[in-house]
Amino acid sequence: MPFNFTVSPDFAPDHMSGWFYFNTWLQRNLGTDIHLELFDSFDEQREQIRAGKIDLIYANPYDASMLVREQGFKAVARPAGTRDEAVVVVPANSSVESVEDLMAGSRLATTADPDVHTIGMIMLEPADLDSSNISQREYDTYILVAKALLRGEADVGFFLKQGFDELSDLIKGQMRVLVSSQISVVHHALLVGPSLQDRFDDLSRMLVDMHTDEKGAGVLESMGLSRWEAMSVEQTEFMIDLIDTLTI
Amino acid sequence: MSEKDTGSVREELIKYFDGSERVAEIVDEEVPFPDGKLIVSRTNTKGIITHVNQAFVDMSAYSRDELIGANHNILRHPDMPAVAFKGLWDTIEGGEKWQGYVKNLRKDGRYYWVKATVIPNVREGKLVGYTSVRRKPSRSKIAESEALYVTLK
Ligand SMILES: Cc1cc2nc3c(=O)[nH]c(=O)nc-3n(C[C@H](O)[C@H](O)[C@H](O)COP(=O)(O)O)c2cc1C
């Protein structure tokens, strides 16, 4: 039976093929069969996780909490330099100058990305806004969130900072960032399930050196990453504790 | 900045739970919570600071060296009622998460309001300390808390 690998559905579509190259690289270097399965939605992926069908996952920090604390996963590495930050955005012509100007009843455009949504909602709290007094609609991609803002269908939108930065200048120019999170300790991580943990040390060594090998460096580039950094148990636990405080 | 700030300076005696006390200079001037940031600290099980992030250092006006190893009550503002902290400690020692609004005292005597969440850190079933993450509170919650805390003093 091959091991099952999956990637948090919030990966950038441009990097989809990169994850397949990474899977090939992993199989070759670990000398074992691994099947990569991508899911369209977080819910679908969580079902498979809960059913114990996933052995390796590039997880969103929010899901990492459930994977580590409830399913016995261990973080092996995180991408160097990338952090998950959220931005709260309004149309450029909006009269809203700061978060505190947003009123109850505001229409929010968001995505199913749990970290961005959670951090975004925290950044609305100074305006006394929460899920009970705004109307929110979930869109599949950040492009669609941008479109909702530009068409006047939403007053405020949440983006992954990286997702916002990657939009074209033409689109970005029609929007204005109200606030940008600067949390810096929340990030995606590669997690190893109990069934694959006897290979944990091999995997850790391979990943940390991946950028030094020509093939490895090429694969990393196609995933939009510079290199992997080892993650200690305590770093993982700290990140999860921090996320725990944000979900109440 | 609160409209009630006068910028006045006074000396006040702060009495701590363990019976110790200190005279602190209190400046009636608020320092605004930085947008988008979280102020993070961790303590051991006794409330001694073991970790602070840069936003914590910046807002407290102490240096990192002064903070690590200090009792977390170094930030206690005399306007905070003791009962609020009793509630905090009873909750977290019971293994639960605590959330509340706190007025903190900076080294320079000025103050800042936070919405704080404190959680127990459990490792392999054992309590090893606590983590607190503070976010920016709304003006209305600050006003409610100010009104409540004067009645609890
Ligand atoms: C993780 C953690 C964070 C805390 N953060 C603060 C804080 O920011 N400000 C504060 O006044 N007390 C904070 N406290 C509570 C203090 O330990 C202390 O109870 C409080 O300052 C009152 O002082 P006293 O209990 O010595 O009288 C924190 C406690 C813990 C465990």
TrEMBL record, chain B:
Q: Which InterPro entries match?
A: PAS, PAS-like_dom_sf, PAS_fold_3
Which superkingdom heads the taxonomic lineage of this protein's source? Bacteria
Specify the PAS domain's residue ranges: 44-95
- Coiled-coil regions listed in the entry: none
Q: Decide whether keyword Heme is in the record.
A: no
Which Pfam families did the record assign?
PAS_3
Q: Which UniProt keywords apply?
A: Receptor
UniProt keyword annotation of Ribosomal protein present: no
The UniProt entry, under SUPFAM superfamilies, shows:
PYP-like sensor domain (PAS domain) (SSF55785)
- List the NCBIfam families hit by this protein, alphabetically: sensory_box (TIGR00229)
> Under what name is this protein listed?
Aerotaxis sensor receptor protein
Source organism per entry reads: Marinobacterium lacunae
